Amino acid sequence: MTLGGPVRAVTAAYCAVVAAASLAYPVVPERFQSWLYSGVSVVVILAILHGIRAHRPANRLPWSLLAAGLTISLAGDIAFDIYADVAGSVPFPSFVDGLYLAFYPVLFLMLGSMLAALGRPDRTAWVDASIWTIGAATLLWEPLIEPVVVRSDGSPFAVTVALLYPLLDLGLLLMVLRMLVGRASVNPSYLLLVGALVTLVGVDTAYGMQEAIGSYVPGGPLDVGWLLVDLMFGAAALHPSMTRLTERMQRPPGSSTHRRLQALLIPAFAPAALLLHQHLGNEEHAPVGEVFAVGAMSLLLVLVVARGVGLLRIAEQRSVQLRDHSRALEAALGDRERVAAQLRERVDQDPLTGLASRTRFVDRVDTAMRAWRDGGAAPSVAFLDLDDFKSINDSLGHEAGDFLLRELGSRMRDHLGGRHLVARLGGDEFAILVVGSFESVAEGLLAALHEPVSFSGRSLRPQVSLGVTTAESRRSSTSDLLREADVAMYAAKRAGGGWRRYQPGMSAVLMERLDVRNQLAAAVQDGSVQPWYQPVVDLSTGTLRGFEALARWTTDGASMVPSLNWLALAEESGLIVDVDRLVLRAAVGQLAAWRREVPGNTLHMAVNFSGRTLQQPGIEDEVLAVLVGAAVSAALLTVEVTEGVLIDDEEVGLRLRRLRAAGVVIGLDDFGTGWSSLNYLRRFPVDHLKLDRSFTEDLGRGPAADTIPAAIVQIARGLSLGLVAEGVETLDQRDRLVELGFRTGQGYLFGRAQRPADLAAQVRASVAPTGGPPRVLRVAR
Length: 781
Ligand code: C2E
Ligand code: CA
Ligand code: CA
Fold this sequence. Notes:
By secondary structure, the protein is α/β, with parallel strands linked by helices.
């Protein structure tokens, strides 16, 4: 039920009526004044009850107590009027005073319940408020309190009752000051309420001072002051922010400690000032004034000591926190060496098959090429690819696929022995660095690989295609050699399997790929290449945090060209630079559009930059120009780079540093795969790490799988870096990541990359509708 309209109308009517009554009050005939006054009180009480009903605050206690307090006070007014009508005048003290005084304890209860709802009692705030209140009491001694104590001619009971008024007001002041130094969130309702209380204390005090010198006239401006207090009470309850009255404000702790301490000097000197004034002044003062000043001074002393003890305790807590933090940091740095070793091993070795990794393989081919140029034997390289692996994976599942790859890996190792280096390049691709003649091992190897594999009762007949090449021209490089082996492998595959040796004539196959290259160049031009956006979410709540832009090549607007194939080609050909520019522009433009369409969203956008893109001089200025052009803050953009980019090039480091200085976030992608040294993390400007998908995939596959991600969490904490997990596909993976300390992540569980049009609803839902929590992406269990 939304009551926005009606409530607003009621509020307007309320303000008009009460304000008109307050203005009319001083000028209406005296006998109507008390009726008018009581009428306003009734309206205010009704307004508070209406506010409670219309806004339904979760914590209605303070408001109910306020209404109760004002009702008691109203009862006092009515009793006073009747008493005066019947008896001619009202004696002091009388039961009417009992009603008036009862208003205060109810108000204290109200403020107490508000403070209690704000959380842990804040001792420091109480001490500060007390110091100020004692200061105020000291200042009010002469004009307000002393006259009551000394010059009163009534009975001790009458004096006590008379004293209760200023004392209760001081109590009220104490609570109001406590509210002001506290941490409530400041909203219109809160301000009106505090304004009413401050005014109440002020008007009461002025009243007391006028009474002391006998100058108070009923029906005068002071009464209007009280009406104003009532007006504010009612308005506070009618304002919609009344539901947030007991919300805590987020403020960094200790932000205003210095100013608060300095300000305490003012009230702390008040008793001394009072003593001086009494001694140096001309007037006669009762000795009780000195007793009061000395008492106030002693109390202040106690409070100041308490404040000091509090400060010491806070300092102790902080130093304990600091120590824990630095311990964690040390532990993280200690872990670093161990993790570095583990990661290096991981980089050198393919975790699935235990064969050499692509990195190690390329490294070894490099070495062999150099040895050959120095007069050694010409190295041969073979590429091997499983036929139809995808359909095995799809029909029998990943486990069957993994099993097959492991089995083939161990057959290759067994067959080729320690002489040749066998590597798994990724997916179903293997490579061999052959020592000596390949022909002598070829047939035996293929025969071994073609032996059936049995997996859970089924028999699979693996078929492979293999291409081999031997270095010939001394000018050719490692990558030439690898490409030739690749081309030969393609030729074998096209011929239906078996093995082929590379020949220059095979470039027909290459031409096929070249053709793709031309198509790609055209696609980048004509808009067939566009980013799609994968959601990045808060792992524990599912709240949308932003997107990663991923390049997609669509033909005929529908069918997609598999991205890995063409992105590798784009990288190889240098077209990736244009792709990255295009994606950057489109993604930043899309973010700007979403910010316009859905005001108040704080979504981020991540784009991927190839090393080649970062080698373009002036690319950082281009990025900033795109941001400025779209009026998007740099802090909303993340540029994701891979580790290789950092290590290679000083210039690239410099460009990243400039981007970062301008506020762009730098993310290190595929973290943990291209490892060289964790020390790079210190030297290069990185804001967060993106745990490589392979770690996420491994989570839950035995206890060892957690150790590296866990240590990476430690390192990231130690170096104050953010963390993002990727490739989250299952709820188990998500839960484990959350346990390990990851807060942000992405993956098919939360959504694949999609066209912007298909994401509009999610973007809209990411903004909290006023009053409710932000909506979250639904995850099916
Ligand atoms: P990346 O930056 O690591 O991107 C994440 C890749 O993982 C994307 O593949 C994405 O579709 C895929 N992915 C996301 N969630 C899951 C999941 O839960 N499970 C699995 N199995 N995969 C998931 P995509 O789009 O094929 O991109 C592959 C790589 O291509 C990217 O890896 C990135 O390095 C590169 N790339 C993509 N777009 C661009 C671009 O615009 N510029 C550059 N330079 N590189 C790009
Ligand atoms: Ca990425
Ligand atoms: Ca990645």
